[in-house]
Amino acid sequence: MGQPDPEQRQVVVTDSLRSGLSSRGNGMPYLELRNLTQQFGSQKALDGLNLSIEKGELVSLLGPSGCGKTTTIRLIAGFLEPTAGTVWIDGRDVTPLPPERRRVGIVFQSYALFPHLNVFDNVGFGLRAAKVPRRQIESRVHRALELVNLPNEANRAVFELSGGEQQRVAIARAVVIEPQILLLDEPLSNLDASLRQRTRQQLRELITSLQTTTVFVTHDQEEAFALSDRIALLSKGRCQQFGTARDLYDHPANEFVARFIGRANVFTLPFAAVGGDCLCLAWPSGRELRLRKPADSARFHIQAGQSCKLLLRPEKIGFEERAGTIRLFSARLLSYRFAGAWSEWEAEGEGVRLWIAHSGASPTSDGPLAVGMTKDLWVRVEDFQVLDV
Amino acid sequence: MSSPVRRPFTTAFHALILVLLLWLVLYPNAYILVQSFIGAGALTFAHYIEFFGSASEREALWNSLWISGWSVVLSGLIGVPLAFLFYRFDFPGRKVFAALASLPVLLPPLVGVISFLFLYGESGILSRSLQRWFGLREPLFSFRGAGAILFVHAYTMYVYFYMFVSAGLKRLDYTLVEAARSLGASSSRAFLRVTLPQLAPSLVGASLLTFMTSMASFSAPYIFGGGIRVLSLQIYNSKLNGDLEMAMVETVILASSSILVLLLLQRYEGTSKYRSTTKGARQPVTLVSHPLKRLLAGGAGIVTVAFLLLPHLTLFLISFAKDGTWTMEILPPRYTIENYARLLSDSSFLEPILNSLQMAALATSANFVFALVAAYLIVRQQVRGRALLGSLILLPWALPGTVLGLSLASTFNQNSLWQGRILLVGTYWLLPLAYFIRHMPVVVRAVQASFEQFDPALEEAARSLGGTWIYSVRRVVLPMVLPGALAGSLLAFVTALGEFVTSIVIYTIHNRPISIEILAQLRQFNFGSAAAYSVFLIFLIGATFVVSQKYLSDIGDGAVS
C-alpha cells in the first residue's frame, strides 16, 4: 500500500469512521426517546420525556442542575433501566440491551480514562473487547489519535496529559468504536475558561466532520448555542422546548424557556377587555396596553378577568421614538450595569420593573442617561409575545 | 446515587456472602448470648446473678474499666504532644522522628510484652542495671500489676492518638485559624476555640479506639498482671477451669461493652464531620530557629525515639543470646547465631513457623476473595441490606480475640448440621477460620477504600465501549482495586502470623502457631529462641509495611485522572 501522505490519510480516517453511519437518511428519527420516565425513590428525575433526533444531528440537552439531562444520557447509554418508556436507535428498541451492546460512545464529564492503561490502551480498549485483530487495532487507534490531534502521545500515561489532552483521548476512545450515537456529558466543564473557548470550536469541527449523531449535556446556554444544531431545554424531568437556538430565543414556549434563555421581562397583566382581533390588557397603574391578537391565539382561552403572561426582550425597548414604535410608558431609571457593547438599565414605571438593554455607544438626543432620570420607553407592539394565559 | 444496570450473579454472590456472615460471624456470638441465659435447660439469669454476685468478677469488670480509662488518658498524653511536636515544628531530624514514632505498630501484642519483660521485668536489663547502679539487694521497682499493664498500654496505644491527631493536623484548614486571628482572637484563644474543635473528631476517635483495644487487651495482663483480674483474662481462665457458663457471661459482658463503644464511635463519626467547605490552606510548619530550642526539640525527639526503639533493640540483642546462659547478668553473657540457624534447620523449631505461615496464608486467601466480592457488593452494587452487610463485617473488629476464640470453640464443638454446627474444635481448621473472621474487617475496609477511590464512570466507560461485565471486571475493576486489596491482605497476613490472643484459646498441638511457641520457649527460659522468633515476626511485619506503603502510594498516583 505504501505510505499515504497525511492529507490522504485524513480522508481515509473520516471515511472509515463514517462508514458505519451511511445507512438511510430518510428523515426518520435516528435516536428516539419515547415517554422516558426515571424514578429514583419518590423522586421523578425524568417524567415522560419524548425526543426525536435525526441522523447526524448535534443536539444538546440544556437545563439547570437536577433537570434530568444526565439521567437522559445515562438512559441512552444503558447505565440505567427506565422506570417506563423506551429508547430507540435506528428503528430498533434498545431498552433491554446492556450498555456493551448498544454501540453508544460516551465521553464522561470526568473523562473516566483508565489510569492503569496508557493512551494507546485506553483508546484501543473497545476494539480489544470486540476482539478486533491486533494489527487492525493498531491502525485504527493511531487514526483516531490523529483525528483528535494527538498522533504522538500513544505511549504516554493518561495522568501525564493536560485536561484538554485527556478530553481528546476520551473522545478518541469513544469514536474509535464507530458508535451509532456519541454522548458527551458536560464535555467542557473540566477545562478552564480560556481553554474552553478554543476547545468549543475544535469540538464542533471534530464532531461535524464525524457526522455522528451526537447528544451532549450542558448547563451553559452559550455552549449549547455554539455547539448544537438543536437544543432540548429540560426542566423538572420534562422537555420544555426542542428547537434551534433562534427558536428558543425568539419563540419561547413558556415562561421557563423565556427566562432561561437570555434575559427576559415577563409581565403578568389582567385583561381589561376582550374582543375583535385585539388584546386589551391593563398595567398595574390602570393604564391600558393594546396588542394585536397573536396568530396562534386559538391555543389560549381568553376570557375577561383572566391575566396574560407577556414577554418583552430587553433589547426590544428603546429610549427614542422610531418608525413603528409606540410609547410604552415613562419609567424612572433605577440602576445601571455596564456590559461592554451594551449597558443594562433597570427601570420602573406603571407599577412594574423591567430591564432595558441599550447600545452604550449611542447617547439619546437629550444627552447621556443617568440613574434617577425619568425617560419615555418605546417598543414595537409586535415585539410583545404572549407566553401564557 | 442511582440504580445501576443489573449485573449477573449479584444475587447469588449477595446470598453467599450474607449466609457466610450470618453463619460465621453472627451465629457463634448469638449462640453464646443465648447460652449465657440458659441453665439446666431453662431460661435463667442465674449466670448473670452469679457474675455480679461474685466479688472477684466485679473486680475484674471494674479493673478492665479503670485500666482502660487510664490507658486512654496516658496514651493521649504521649500521643497528642508528639503529633504536635512532629507535625507543627521543624527541626533537624523531624521527618525521621515522625516516621519512627509509629514504630510500636510493628510489635505484635505478645512480642511487645515480652520485650518489656526483657527490659523492665524483675530480671530485665534495665531493672538489673538500676539495681547494680544503686547497689541494691532487690530490684528498684517491680514491673507487675496494673502499673505494668498501663505502661505497656500507653507504650503501644499512644500510636492511635499520634496517628489520628497528626492526620487531623494535616487536614486542618488553617484559614479558619487565620480568620479567628483576624477577628481579634489571641493565638491561644484561636487554638482553644478553633483548632481544638477541629481536632475533636480525631481525639474522640482515638480515645474510643484506645478504650476498646485496652478492654480487649490480653497479653499484658497475662504476662504482667501478677494476679490482677481483668475480663479478657477471666474468660481464658474460666474456660481453662471448665466453667463454660461463667466464661460465656464474661464474654457477653466484654463483647457488649466493646460493641457499645463501636456504636458510639460510628455515631460520632456520623454526626460530627467537620468538613471544611473551602479548599483551605495547610498551616505552615513553624521552623524552630532558636539554637537552644532546636537542641531541645531535637533532643526530645531523640529521647522519645530511643525509648521507642529500646524494645526492638532488646529483642534483637537477646535473639543472639545462647539459651540457658543468661541468669544473673545485666546482659546475656554468651552470644550465638544458633537461635536463627535452628529456626530454619531444626524441624521442631521450624514447625510453628510453617504452621503460622500456612494458616495465615489460608485465612488471608479467603479474606482476599471474600473482601473483593463483599466490597464490590457494598460499594458498587448498592444491594439491599448493605447496612446489615457492613455491620456484620465490622463486628469481628469490635470483638476481643478471647471472645472470638470462645464463641467459635463453643459453637463448632460438635457435628449437628441442622443447627449449622460442625466439629472443628481439636482440628487444624478452627484457628485459620478464626484468623479469617478476625481480619475480615481490615481487608474488606481496604478493598472498600479502593472501590470508593475509583470513579464508577470507569466501569461504565468499559461497558459502553463494548466490554461485557466479566471483561470490564477483569480489565478495569480488578486492576484498579488489586493494589488496595493486596495491601489489606498483606496486613491481615502478618497480623495473622503473630496472632496470639485468639490462638491461645483454640490452638491444638497440631497447629501450634509462632506466638504460642514463643510463650513455650519463654516458659523454658530459652530467651534466645523466644527473641529470635520475635525478631523474625517483627522483620516480616516491617517488610510488609514497607511493601504495602509503596503499593498504597502507587494507587494514590494512579487515581489522579
Description:
The complex is a heterodimer of chains A (389) and B (561). Chain A is of the alpha+beta class. Chain A has two domains: 253 residues, Rossmann fold, CATH 3.40.50; 126 residues, no CATH class. In chain A, a hairpin with a 2-residue loop joins β1 and β2. The longest helix of chain A has 18 residues. Chain B is mainly alpha-helical and 561 residues long. The C terminus of chain B is likely disordered.
Provide a quick synopsis of the model.
Chain A is an alpha+beta fold and 389 residues long. Chain A folds into two domains: 253 residues, Rossmann fold, CATH 3.40.50.300; 126 residues, no CATH class.
Q: Can you tag this structure with a few keywords?
A:
heterodimer; A: about 400 residues; alpha+beta; Rossmann fold; 2 domains; 6-stranded mixed β-sheet; disordered N terminus; B: mainly alpha; two-stranded antiparallel sheet; two-stranded parallel ribbon; 4 strands; about 0% strand; globular; disordered C terminus
Question: Main beta sheet of chain A: strand number and arrangement?
Answer: 6 strands, mixed
CATH class of the largest domain in chain A: Alpha Beta
Average pLDDT over all residues of chain B: 84
Could you say what the CATH topology of the largest domain in chain A is called? Rossmann fold
Strand content of chain A: 25-35%
Helicity level of chain B: over 70%
Count of discrete structural domains of chain A: 2
What's the architecture of the largest domain in chain A, going by CATH?
3-Layer(aba) Sandwich
Helix-and-strand structural type of chain B: mainly alpha
Unreliable segments of chain A (pLDDT under 50, ≥5 consecutive)? 1-25
Number of strands of chain B: 4
Unreliable segments of chain B (pLDDT under 50, ≥5 consecutive)? 272-279, 555-561
Oligomer: heterodimer
- Mean pLDDT of chain A, to the nearest integer, reads 84
* Radius of gyration computed on alpha carbons of chain B: 25 Å
